Amino acid sequence: xxxSNTKQQHQSASIxxxxxxxxxxxxxxxxxxxxxxxxxxxxxxxxxxxxxLRQSMTTGSNSGEVLGMDWSKQPGESEISSTLSDFEDxxxxxxxxxxxxxxxGSFGHFQASKSGVHKGGLYQxxxxxxxxxxxxxxxxxxxxxxxxxxxxxxxxxxxxxFSCGWSTCERNIASADLSAVAKAIESGxxxxxxxxxxxxxxxxxxILSGDVIISHLAAHxxxxxxxxxxxxxxxxxxxxxDPNAVLLRExxxxxxxxxxxxxxxxxxxxxxxxxxCCSFNITITEGVLCSSVCLNGxxxxxxxxxxx
Length: 308
Description:
The protein is built from seven helices and 17 strands. The chain is an alpha/beta fold.
């Protein structure tokens, strides 16, 4: 464990970017997939968010012609939307460094839950089969998200945590080499990571969630913003499906990590992480502004925000 932590700290400490990361964006699984339909993408939402991301990444370019980068030979929207000659006179676009992380939604959850991958025990045939099936499913979704971003002219590159050497120890990150992510960013590419099935030093295997990945990336790459795109309007005091759920429009976070709800005003304003029947945690890295927005017609700069 000590060796893993030392290795992780060494890898993270060696990351140095010539241009700071502007934003890490989390695409919620429920927002980009149809969670009640196995391995089904919400095409409309994915197309909308891909277009919004292009506008946010590209300086001074909110509209106009888009040269697609998905040259795969599949029908429909996947057809080549540009020719080689289109790129010859295309100006170099100044884009802000972004990282995209997405959840699994209707991809991977079924395979992982039915086989118990998150509990470990890779020596068990069912768990081993589930580990393989989960990775097939989540990497399939990753490819489709990369393709959707590429169709919008975003130079996206899929990066699976397992393949990049990420691992855990009792579900906590033990090793996470960020050099590949950093090199991609320095090369003008947009890394697209996802929740994944990974090896665990004590459990054999488990599930590494996209939220944990974002927390680690934010801690070591210090982005200006972390934005969560969801299928609801923001952070609530209890499950949004509850008719009494209240949208927390502003949460203030102090330098010591403590936080309080600013808007709306509750009688017990500083109640930490517990409102009604639901508990939740707010984690913030120094200098990082976290936002949560809804894909239902909203822009990336909308929704609930956290002030540091």
